[in-house]
Write a structure and sequence with these properties.
This protein is mainly alpha-helical and 259 residues long. The chain has one domain. Helices cover 41% and strands 7% of the residues. It contains seven helices and two strands. It has helices at residues 6-28, 96-109, 115-129, 180-190, 198-208, 213-224, 235-253, and strands spanning 152-160, 166-175. It has a two-stranded antiparallel ribbon. The radius of gyration is 17 Å and the shape is globular.
């Protein structure tokens, strides 16, 4: 067992404070319908989702709606490809160290080796699924169905108006993956060098740039492309999350924290 240093303990403490401190925001907000863009919500910020089998249970997550490879189109949802939402967590809820190292192992198994990419993908998944592990059918990055023609499941979600007011949307369709390999592949199909959306191409460049300065730039680029609309989880907070992840990986896997 690796003995945690004082620096790591302080990092994890700050990590926990960031998650818990922002968590109170979701309990204080109420929403009204209005015009929306692509939406971002998590249990630590301002969102909820519920399964269709148990509408009373509140399950927050992050909503990423559209694929960058296709324009927004009207979708005819086919009942034949709809499946039941199934929990697929990658670790025990609220166990920060395990969740970070487990997702790191999943990414390595799927040929994501570069430390800078790995750190930002881990952070992205944590923002999307939350420390509570609200993960359904391997959709760790919280992507709604959009142009996806594969299996999907239905969950309620929260969207946000341009003024920042959240409101609930029932029966939103979400991408359902058959495993982590498919989920990771979908991630890179959306955030890609050949995306039709300039901000996503920019996010792809920042995703692959070395150095911690690219952390905030990556998240900001996604925001500029309307990848999310929730305003409380800023690029600065995303960078802080990435910093905490680097500290954990450096301690447990001897990673180079400069990458």
């Amino acid at each position: 067992m690796v003995k945690m240093s004082t620096t790591l303990k302080k990092s994890i403490s700050n990590f926990t404070a960031l998650a818990i401190g922002i968590a109170s925001l979701c309990c204080a907000e109420a929403g009204n319908p209005g015009r929306t863009k692509t939406t971002l919500f998590t249990e630590t910020y301002s969102g909820i989702n519920t399964t269709i089998t148990n509408p009373a249970s509140i399950e927050p997550r992050l909503s990423f709606v559209f694929s960058p490879r296709e324009d927004l189109i009207d979708l005819k949802i086919e009942a034949s490809s709809r499946i039941r939402p199934r929990k697929t967590p990658w670790g025990p809820p609220w166990q920060h160290k395990e969740l970070v190292t487990n997702m790191s192992a999943i990414l390595v198994q799927n040929n994501i080796i570069k430390p800078s990419v790995k750190v930002r993908m881990i952070a992205h998944a944590i923002v999307a699924s939350g420390w509570r592990q609200n993960v359904w059918n391997y959709n760790a990055w919280g992507v709604q169905r959009g142009s996806w023609r594969g299996p999907y499941h239905i969950l309620n979600t929260i969207e946000e108006t341009d003024q920042g007011t959240p409101y609930q949307v029932k029966d939103a369709p979400w991408r359902a993956f058959r495993g982590w390999a498919e989920a990771v592949r979908d991630y890179h199909n959306r955030i890609s060098a050949d995306s039709k959306r300039p901000s996503y191409r920019q996010a792809y460049r920042h995703l692959h740039n070395p150095g911690s300065k690219a952390d905030a730039a990556y998240w900001a680029a996604l925001g500029e492309g309307n990848y999310y609309t929730a305003q409380k989880f800023t690029a600065k907070k995303f960078a802080a999350l990435c910093h905490g992840i680097r500290q954990i990986l450096a301690q447990t896997q001897n990673c180079d924290t400069a990458l």
